[in-house]
Amino acid sequence: MDTYRITRENLTALTADLLAAGTRVAAPARAADGRTDYGFVTDASHVVLDGGLPRRSLKELFLPPTEPLLGWKQHQGDVELQEVPTTFPPTVVLGARPCDAAAVDVLDRVMGWDYRDELWFGRRAATTVISLACPGVDDLCFCSAVGGGPDSTRGADLLLAPTTDGFLVTVVTPKGRTLLTSHAGRFTEQPVSESLPAGPRTPDPGPLSLDGIRAWLESHFEHPLWAEIAQRCHGCGACASVCPTCHCFDIVDEPEGVDHGTRRRNWDTCQTAIFTLHASGHNPRHDQGSRFRQRLLHKFSVYPAKFGEVLCTGCGRCARACPAGQDIVELLGRIGS
After folding, report:
1. Can you tell me the distance from the alpha carbon of 49 to that of 229, in angstroms, rounded to the nearest whole number?
2. pLDDT per residue as tens digits for the range 219-228
3. 275-279 contacts at long range (C-beta below 8 A, 24 or more positions apart)
4. CA 154 → CA 27, 173, 299, 307, distances in Å?
């Protein structure tokens, strides 16, 4: 992979160039409460690259919390369906954390599995991802324990690594090469003889045996641990709302008048009681322990069985967002030991 340099001033100028050309730029930006979130920016000065891990993940740029799938309009006995666009304007994500960029790549598997999600892949095709090597946020980070890393290139088209005067830029994909070539004046070549800076360091959660975790999950369906975990879990779904790889959704028809409406996709989560509630009143996951068990089974057993990798990139957001202090690394350590 080829490496280049870009100064901070030129990165700001590159962002301005993209915006001036009509390219949408999504980046970490300051929210009203002072924290950072990914969002579309209208000015290069709004980009915040040193604000730590954004509160919410990159996933919602490709799978919005709510979006229309189609419109419908009734004409007497006939129903007219109104398709939604599946192509999107050129977009650049600037400053994606490696755990978030990797998560989008992980989700490509399920989004293109038995049915190709055209909305997801339409956004993916239109988007170039520039990720930013991460120094780690806190002791809840565990990307390296699930096969990632603070400077992983997975899911990225270009990778930025901070230096004293700017960033080293690693070209990862042809899409990244196209962006760099189109704005060549903002970059300079990195001499091969020059040593690269030491990689970032993140907290080490200790070894996690992913094979051991999967084997334990598949053989301890009725273990008392699930009832113990349930004592702390509120079933609020905060973990799923900030997770970069949770992707469950519901589809509803929303009337917007007497004869027309919208079929809409909305995020959902297996952590709420209503998720599996049948119309008969029966609920196969009738307690919070079985619902939390489903979350871990899906991420560390079901998904690996289907796609060969865990449904987790170790960002630690679930533990930070949990009002009860559930720490997934702690739980996985107990399960895999």
Report:
1. 36
2. 999 999 999 9
3. 275/248
4. 18, 10, 19, 16
